[in-house]
Automatic annotation (TrEMBL):
Keyword Chloroplast: no
CDD domains found in the cross-reference section: GATase1_IGP_Synthase
Domain Glutamine amidotransferase, first and last residues per copy: 12-212
Keyword set includes Metal-binding: no
UniProt-recorded name of the protein: Imidazole glycerol phosphate synthase subunit HisH
Recorded GO MF terms: glutaminase activity; imidazoleglycerol-phosphate synthase activity; lyase activity
Pathway note: Amino-acid biosynthesis; L-histidine biosynthesis; L-histidine from 5-phospho-alpha-D-ribose 1-diphosphate: step 5/9
Localisation: Cytoplasm
Length: 217
């Protein structure tokens, strides 16, 4: 696969204590972005793109995010139409709530919906999988339908609940994957994009996907 080169844009990887920020930094730098790891409010607000990683439990990630004022940063950026991308649990916390071991935790509620246990015989879902990309997706532009992406997770969103009835508003583009039953693998919703899989661990396909995001900044 021939990898196109992204323009040099400034991207901040939000450092709130959860997520492999160094892997994300290397992957973004590899496709030509100028990358900084920080939780500094002014720097995160000034960057052309904000990447929100996430590894671990939903509740712990939400605590860390709030302690770093990440919820405020994300909300303020989105209010101004400034691009944000979430990865793995960094995607899950964008939904209304997460339920782990019977404990319910409020998310950022950018999208309605519940993050719950994967409904599959084998959990966690760990390894390579294909996706059913949304029609007209910019995130998956130029990527073949059989491209594979790297997943590591035990929880997911199985039902997309947001309805867009306003004809003047573009409906979010929702990409699905299947492990046991279908779950949300990626979302493109105005300035807010997210993936359940790890593009920084997904080889050339993940690099092209990050390039596609950077090209929109």
């Amino acid at each position: 696969m021939e990898l196109t080169t992204a323009p040099r844009k400034k991207v901040v990887v939000l450092d709130y204590g959860f997520g492999n920020v160094r892997s994300a930094e290397r992957a973004l730098a590899h496709v030509g972005a100028e990358v900084e790891i920080t939780r500094d409010y002014d720097r995160a607000m000034a960057a052309e793109g904000l990447l929100v990683p996430g590894v671990g439990a939903f509740a712990a990630c939400m605590r860390g995010l709030k302690e770093a004022r990440g919820d405020w940063i994300i909300g303020r950026r989105l209010a101004g139409g400034r691009p944000v991308m979430g990865i793995c649990v960094g995607m899950q916390i964008l939904f209304g709530r997460g339920i782990e071991h019977g404990v319910e935790t409020e998310g950022l509620d950018e999208w309605p919906g519940t993050v719950g246990p994967l409904k599959a015989d084998v959990v966690p879902h760990m390894g390579w999988n294909t996706v059913d990309a949304a029609e007209g997706s910019a995130l998956f532009a130029g990527l073949p339908a059989d491209a594979r992406y790297y997943f590591v997770h035990s929880y997911a969103v199985h039902d997309w609940e947001l309805e867009t009835s306003n004809p003047h508003m573009a409906a979010p583009k929702v990409t699905w994957a299947t492990h046991g039953r279908p779950f949300v693998a990626a979302v493109e919703n105005g300035p807010l994009w997210a993936t359940q899989f790890h593009p920084e661990k997904s080889g050339d396909a993940g690099a092209q996907l990050l390039t596609n995001w950077i090209n929109t900044l």
